[in-house]
Amino acid sequence: MTRGDVVARTEARVRELLGGDASGHDWWHVERVRRVALRLGAAEGADAFVVELAALLHDVDDWKASGDPEAASRHAREWLRALDVEPEVVERVAEIVGTLSFKGAGVPTPMRTVEGKVVQDADRLDALGAIGIARAFAYGGSRGRPLHDPEAPPVAHESFEQYRGAGGATLNHFYEKLFLLRDRMNTAAGRRLAEARHRYTEEYVARFLAEWKGEDRED
Ligand code: ADP
Ligand code: NI
């Protein structure tokens, strides 16, 4: 099987598995991450095959749905082995898929390889800006969470267990994760995109809070 066939088969499989998920992990999230990861990867001299496969597989069996932090890398490994992908590529992809997820404000999630860095940056960029805002509220809605609760302030989670068990209103997620992403970007181009998306997200939250209090401006 050619590399092009491996990518096409993987794409078809991921489309089938993620389908119309409404919690922010649908196929189009994966497609956006793939596009941005390849763009960042070209600037960083990353291996495009590893980047593309890791981007495609990064949210299959996500821990938030499966409850198992190892499930995603296991799934990626089994799938690529079945397609006879070289073991070295399989391991590089599985490592990325198994380590890229955000795990709380106080929990570092460093990426060892340049391919991992660009896929993680691309995934995090999709949590910021216009799309990121939409995804946060879509995810919150899928979990039955309120938009905002002014009586329950945000928490800086110091462990993955704490982050994983957190409930609360969606607006808190902006402070517990989204506003922290800009300073955790791995690549220069990723950081520049994150900066612009971060500013837009901040403006959005400022307006949200002004409207919440009925104090937004008339002009
Ligand atoms: P990562 O790929 O870093 O693991 P996630 O899978 O945690 O990212 O998040 C997927 C999307 O769901 C992101 O847009 C994220 O901001 C959103 N999300 C995750 N947890 C929450 C939450 N508690 N409230 C609102 N949105 C959330
Ligand atoms: Ni993702």
Unique bound compounds = adenosine-5'-diphosphate, nickel (II) ion
Outline = globular
Query: What are the segments in which pLDDT stays under 50 over at least 5 consecutive residues?
Result: none
Helix-strand topology string:
HHHHHHHHHHH
Distance between the termini: 61 Å
Helix content bin: 55-70%
| Overall pLDDT score | 92
Radius of gyration: 18 Å
Label the structural class: mainly alpha
The fraction of residues in strands falls at: under 5%
Q: Biggest sheet, in brief?
A: none
| Total strands | 0
Please count the helical segments. 11
Overview in brief:
With 219 residues, this protein is mainly alpha-helical. It contains eleven helices and no strands. The longest helix is centred in the last third of the chain and has 25 residues, at 188-212.
How would you describe the overall organization of this protein?
The protein is an all-alpha fold and 219 residues long. 63% of the residues lie in helices and 0% in strands. The protein is built from 11 helices and no strands. It has helices at 3-18, 27-44, 48-57, 63-66, 71-82, 87-99, 114-125, 129-142, 160-165, 170-176, 188-212. Helix 2 (27-44) packs antiparallel against helix 3 (48-57), helix 3 packs across helix 7 and helix 8 crosses helix 11. It binds adenosine-5'-diphosphate (ADP) and nickel (II) ion.
Write the layout of secondary structure elements.
Blueprint: H1 3-18, H2 27-44, H3 48-57, H4 63-66, H5 71-82, H6 87-99, H7 114-125, H8 129-142, H9 160-165, H10 170-176, H11 188-212
Helix pairs in contact: 1-3, 2-3, 2-7, 3-6, 3-7, 5-6, 6-7, 7-11, 8-10, 8-11
Bound molecules: adenosine-5'-diphosphate and nickel (II) ion.
Adenosine-5'-diphosphate binds at residues 24, 62, 64, 101-102, 123, 127, 132, 135-136, 139-140, 170, 173, 177-178.
